[in-house]
Automatic annotation (TrEMBL):
Tagged with keyword Calcium: no
Domain Arginyl tRNA synthetase N-terminal positions: 3-91
Keywords from the UniProt entry: Aminoacyl-tRNA synthetase, ATP-binding, Cytoplasm, Ligase, Nucleotide-binding, Protein biosynthesis
UniProt-listed InterPro entries: aa-tRNA-synth_I_CS (IPR001412), Arg-tRNA-ligase (IPR001278), Arg-tRNA-synth_N (IPR005148), Arg-tRNA-synth_N_sf (IPR036695), ArgRS_core (IPR035684), DALR_anticod-bd (IPR008909), Rossmann-like_a/b/a_fold (IPR014729), tRNAsynth_Ia_anticodon-bd (IPR009080)
Protein name: Arginine--tRNA ligase
Catalytic activity, EC: 6.1.1.19
Motif ('HIGH' region): 126-136
Subcellular location as annotated: Cytoplasm
SMART domains, A to Z: Arg_tRNA_synt_N, DALR_1
GO terms for biological process, alphabetical: arginyl-tRNA aminoacylation
SUBUNIT field: Monomer.
Gene: argS
Length: 583
RNA sequence: GCGCCUGUAGCUCAACCGGAUAGAGCAACGGCCUUCUAAGCCGUCGGUUGCAGGUUCGAGUCCUGCCAGGCGCGCCA
């Protein structure tokens, strides 16, 4: 509809220019927005305000001239001038109805799919040396929601779980693993690795207290890097266990990552020397205090001197910058990315600016490829400080999820005690996990946010339980009526304000998804679904569906309910929530 | 010191590319269950958008300067 209106306005502009009312150079991009207030119609443009000055006319006069020159269109019922010179468009009822019918008739809810792109999305990317903690939640959840949305819009998405499976701390872990293997049975060892966090602490303790152990650990790093077979075997064993922990968390969270999406830092080891050689060949590299660096003019350090990107240490070792460059090249070259999205902590903003600039400078990534760091803020506790356990340690993700489910179970069994135990458990899972995910997704990605169980599990406000509940209410209508959601027919009759408001919002699903995909901001979808759920609840209170006598109106309301249900369900699935039929 | 981010109602958060009267929820107060799930709906109260300038038809949004908080800044990732 926006495109359609823009075309109309451009046509009107052209005729005003042809008539000499507007100077030929006065044309500029037409901006059209949805109105916030129903009294301003459905869409508005500020074009008359923008062009008033170059045209030498009063905005309202220009608006009037534009309206007079506007071609007729059956989708537009009325055009008005309002305020200082806004042009307001009122959508024709028939047109809205046809949009609703189109959505209802299509498995994809008539969401348009644009030109498909190959989008590489880097998200989750935990460090395998430790267990996943709350710091990994945001990347994992937000990245997954955006990935699902991109796929729904028809893009080819390549997930990249860039796990930390390399680095000096592995020497310590392998030394400890080796030591324990000799002292314990396989079963004991497996149990011990079950608590990776404890395993890491124990290894660290050994490292700190025993010089002998530390020496062995450092030796193992060298052997590992040299490709020693025994050492690699140990390393793989360790990573397998660690990865299986991650996968358990993903499964529990309902995140779409699988083992085949893992491509860790170590995957680029063989390419690192080549990256440095290529940078040298391009003449980008210079040595500084023994390290191989690239200096780019736009990056300055604290003294105003050029800030280096170090790609090789003085001792010959490589760094994460080197790995990231290799990954950029792989994603552009081998994976054929048109777009790369990095869901990584905001604190690495400078690093990514440098990487992106350098990757293009070095020709590792084509100029046209979009590189975007989708940074996010910190997850804080109710005190506004970084989320920690009572004794100040990091909170394991799995513990957080356990608590969420327990709390949800308590709430669910209180409200719906009549359901059987299995169903209570499964509802508690959807509600508890959904609440944690939704609390994160519904906030603006770039800012810090406060994690609060009570708030996210509340049935009121912009929460997962509220959305899930709204969906069960629609589902319940159809269950009660003994009808399938696709067994509705007839024409829409939207007479009540509540019906119209809901309908008008429902047809915006596609544009919302488009902005989620463009900006990597799932909170836009959350806000939309919350809105739809609220409008439905209002409709549900004010417009009886099943008990109404008029059969045509009943069908219309059933259709509206069906489209609401499908939109809510699809939206929740894109966010990675599990819609429930009952709760 | 330089750079990035943040500052919106008592609290938690919104506000699409600069657009019309800055919106929700919680909390407080008041209504609505013989009728499709009240985990709901309807209403009242609550704001100098950190401060001061500027740009313009119009600024929470853009620019400048302050104030407050967070983060980053050469061989960790």
């Amino acid at each position: 509809m926006k495109e359609r209106l823009i075309a109309l306005i451009e046509s009107a502009l052209d005729s005003l220019i042809a008539a000499g009312t507007l100077p030929a150079d006065a044309k500029r991009p037409v901006q059209i927005d949805r109105t916030k207030d129903k009294s301003h119609g459905d869409f508005a443009t500020n074009i008359a305000l923008m062009l008033a000055k170059p045209a030498g006319m009063k905005p309202r006069d220009l608006a009037e001239a534009l309206i007079a020159a506007l071609p007729a269109d059956s989708a537009v019922a009325k055009v008005d001038i309002a305020g200082p010179g806004f042009i307001n468009f009122f959508q024709a009822e028939d047109f809205l109805n046809s949009q609703l019918d189109a959505a209802l008739a299509d498995a994809h809810l008539a969401v348009p799919r644009g030109a498909p792109q190959t989008v590489v999305v880097d998200y989750s990317s935990p460090n395998l040396a430790k267990e996943m903690h709350v710091g990994h939640l945001r990347s994992t959840i937000i990245g997954d929601a955006v990935v699902r949305t991109l796929e729904f819009l028809g893009h080819q998405v390549v997930r990249q779980n860039h796990v930390g499976d390399w680095g000096t701390q592995f020497g310590m872990l392998l030394a400890y693993l080796d030591e324990q293997k000799h002292e314990e049975s396989a079963a004991e060892l497996s149990r011990e690795l079950g608590d990776l966090e404890g395993f890491y602490r124990a290894a660290k303790q050994r490292f700190d207290e025993s010089e002998d152990f530390a020496t062995r650990a450092r030796g193992l790093v060298v052997k590992l890097q040299a490709g020693d077979a025994d050492c690699l075997k140990l390393w793989r064993e360790f990573n397998d266990v660690s990865l299986s922990h991650c996968q358990a968390v993903y499964d529990r969270l309902g995140v779409s990552l699988t083992p085949s999406d893992v491509r860790g830092e170590s995957a680029y080891n063989d390419d690192l020397a080549q990256v440095v050689a290529d940078l040298t060949a391009k003449g980008l590299l210079s040595e500084d205090q023994g390290a191989q660096c690239v200096f780019m003019d736009q990056f300055k350090n604290k003294d105003g001197d050029p800030l280096p990107v170090i790609v090789q240490k003085a001792d010959g070792g490589y760094l994460y910058a080197t790995t990231d460059l290799a990954a950029l090249r792989y994603r552009a070259g081998t994976l054929g990315a048109d777009r790369m999205l990095y869901f990584v902590d905001q604190r690495q903003a400078l690093h990514f600016q440098q990487m992106f600039a350098l990757a293009k400078l070095a020709g590792f990534v084509p100029e046209a490829t979009e590189l975007a760091h989708m940074g996010f803020g910190t997850m804080n506790g109710p005190d506004g400080r970084p989320f920690k356990t009572r004794d100040g340690g990091t909170v394991k993700l799995i513990d957080l999820l356990d608590e969420a489910e327990q709390r949800a179970y308590a709430l669910v069994s209180e409200k719906s005690g009549e359901l059987d135990e299995d169903e209570l458990r499964s509802i508690a899972r959807a509600v508890g996990i959904g609440a944690v995910k939704y609390a994160d997704l519904s906030k603006n990605r770039s800012s810090d946010y406060i994690f609060n169980f009570d708030q996210m599990l509340s049935f009121e406000g912009n929460t997962a339980p509220y959305l899930l509940y709204a969906y069960t209410r629609v589902a319940s209508v159809f269950r009660k009526a003994g009808l399938a959601m696709d067994a509705v027919s007839g024409d829409f009759q939207l007479n009540d304000d509540a019906e119209q408001a809901l309908a008008a919002r429902l047809v915006q699903f596609g544009e919302v998804l488009q902005s989620v995909a463009d900006k990597g901001q799932p909170h836009l979808l959350c806000a939309y679904l919350y809105d739809v759920a609220g409008l439905f609840s209002s409709f549900y209170e004010h417009c009886p569906i099943l008990s109404i006598d008029d059969p045509a109106l009943k069908q219309s309301r059933l259709k509206l309910a069906a489209l609401t249900a499908r939109t809510l369900k699809q939206g929740m699935e894109l966010l990675g929530l599990s819609p429930l039929e009952r709760m």
